[in-house]
Design a protein that fits this description.
The structure is a single chain. The protein is α+β, with helices and mostly antiparallel strands. The protein has one domain. 44% of the residues lie in helices and 12% in strands. The chain has 14 helices and nine strands. It has helices spanning 3-7, 17-34, 41-51, 53-61, 66-72, 79-83, 121-129, 131-136, 140-146, 175-189, 195-201, 262-278, 297-315, 327-345; strands at 98-106, 111-118, 148-158, 220-221, 224-227, 230-231, 233-234, 318-319, 322-323. The longest helix is centred in the last third of the chain and has 19 residues, at 297-315. The radius of gyration is 35 Å and the shape is elongated. The protein starts with a helix and ends in a 6-residue tail after the last helix.
């Protein structure tokens, strides 16, 4: 990937509806994070306030690859169109920081998307494609990969190698925050988050419709995008903004029990079965302890007798004054002497 290609953006004189929509989503996202009422205020507000929302928005949008704007402007999304985002064969071998999309065509012929971030794209893609890694790190994303016909990876955004005082490198020194915000932005653009999260973070226009519903030429159904394969499902569960936030002990997950996607329902049922299997089986009651907590003396005495008998069996050959040699040892030695004598006699008297 060339640095110039990574940092290029649409001409301001001919801004596409998709660029305008993405700009509006990012502006609202940064404004919400800067608000004192936001639970993310402590983490993101100093960074946003230092650079300003408008300059930071321009800098972040410059990281998005030009092929993404082309794809977003496509009247009807499809898995084949996703392949065109990463048209260069060396894109997935990039070893820098990036935001990527994994488009998955399920066995039910439905297209679903998962957006992720990484500090080394090549290593992260290799992990996703390794079945042992997927086995050891179960998730909805990997559940969908296991039940897929085909999948494709697309590079959505690439961070510049160095930060600068202005231009494309503005604010890029805070790598974790930049990656979180860019991943969140792409999750909102591709509608890969649960519907509850989309309602919370997507801007609403004055008519009460989802922003961009009629401005991009891309239909929307139940807050989801529509592709050639039908309604495009989402595979992101946790909010990307929670990654690396020390104030949060655990990353909160949205309740997916009301999700209409049958794949999500199957995954939830499988998680319930695994949780049931991991529960400890009821332990057998200790016979040496009664219900009132006192020792069962009869059981203790029986165990003592069994132990004494076993000890006598081991020690019956040992006497205080010496070692007792069993009879079978003496008989065996005598048999060996007789056999040796017969062998030396050669079967009869000698001359």
């Amino acid at each position: 990937m060339s640095t110039q290609q990574q940092q290029s953006q649409p001409n301001t004189k001919s801004l596409s509806p998709t660029y305008i929509e993405t700009h509006a989503i990012l502006t609202r996202l940064l404004t919400t994070l800067q608000s004192p009422a936001s639970p993310y205020h402590t983490t993101y507000s100093p960074w946003i306030t230092h650079y300003g929302i408008a300059p930071l928005t321009t800098s972040l949008l410059s990281c998005i690859r030009p092929t993404v704007w082309t794809f977003l402007s496509t009247p009807r999304w499809s898995l084949d169109a996703l392949k065109q985002i990463s048209s260069h064969p060396g894109d997935l071998r990039y070893e820098g920081r990036a935001i990527y999309l994994n488009g998955i065509l399920g066995l039910d012929k439905r297209l679903r998307g998962y957006v992720g971030q990484t500090t080394c794209l090549r290593q992260r893609v290799a992990q996703h494609l390794n079945f042992r890694y997927r086995r050891d790190h179960p998730s909805l994303h990997y559940w969908a990969l296991q039940r897929s016909v085909f999948n494709v990876f697309a590079v959505l955004a690439v961070l510049p190698p160095t930060a600068g005082p202005s231009g494309p490198g503005l604010g890029m020194e805070e790598v974790p925050l930049v990656l979180n915000v860019l991943e969140m932005l792409m999750c909102l653009v591709f509608r890969s988050l649960p519907v509850e999260s989309l309602r919370e973070w997507l801007p609403i226009d004055g008519h009460g419709h989802e922003h961009g519903e009629s401005g991009t030429g891309i239909a929307s159904s139940n807050w989801r995008r529509v592709s050639r394969e039908g309604v495009m499902g989402g595979l992101n569960i946790a909010c990307p903004l929670d990654q690396g936030v020390t104030q949060l002990k655990e990353r909160p997950f949205v309740d997916l029990r009301d999700d209409e996607d049958e794949l999500v329902k199957e995954w939830l049922r499988e998680m319930d079965r695994e949780r049931e299997g991991r529960r400890e089986a009821p332990k057998a009651p200790d016979k040496t302890v009664e219900k009132n907590g006192e020792l069962n003396r009869e059981e203790v005495e029986s165990r003592k007798k069994a132990y004494v008998q076993k000890a006598r069996a081991y020690n019956k050959y040992i006497e205080p004054e010496g070692v007792f040699v069993p009879n079978w040892v003496l008989l065996g030695a005598a048999a060996m002497v007789v056999g040796w004598a017969l062998f030396r006699s050669n079967g009869g008297p000698r001359r």
